[in-house]
Design brief:
A 4-stranded parallel sheet has the order 2-1-3-4. The mean pLDDT is about 95. The protein contains 3 helices and 4 strands; from the N terminus they run ββαβαβα. By secondary structure, the protein is of the alpha/beta class. The protein has a single domain, classed as 3-Layer(aba) Sandwich (Rossmann fold). The chain starts with 5 loop residues before the first strand and ends with a helix. It is globular.
Length: about 100
């Protein structure tokens, strides 16, 4: 298990400093990494991940992970997507997760 790590989720782009991040290209890869290594300390997320895959699929998996294990979600995050509506939906769900798990 990795103690501290950062997630960059995007199917095309790379982070400015790739050494700092675990780069995942789709939602299932990112969810599997969390299942093996726990929550990252920071996440930078894209919405449109190619085909029918989206960052929202990842966020829903993250919600399930935290709620099933009663884990407080304190990860810092940024949504770097150009999809305004998708980013807004992801932001809303992550804010709700933070609020809901604050007492775990």
């Amino acid at each position: 298990m990795i103690i501290k790590w950062q997630l960059f989720l995007d199917d095309e782009r790379d982070p400015d400093d790739p050494v700092e991040y675990v780069i995942c290209r789709n939602s299932s890869e990112a969810i599997k990494f969390i299942l093996l290594n726990g929550l990252p300390t920071y996440m930078s997320l894209d919405h449109d991940l190619g085909g029918h895959d989206t960052g929202m699929v990842f966020v829903k998996g993250l919600v399930e992970y935290c709620l099933d294990r009663r884990i407080m979600f304190t990860t810092e995050w940024n949504i770097h997507s150009q999809n305004v509506e998708g980013a807004k939906n992801m932001k809303s769900m992550l804010e709700q997760l933070t609020w809901y798990t604050k007492d775990f």
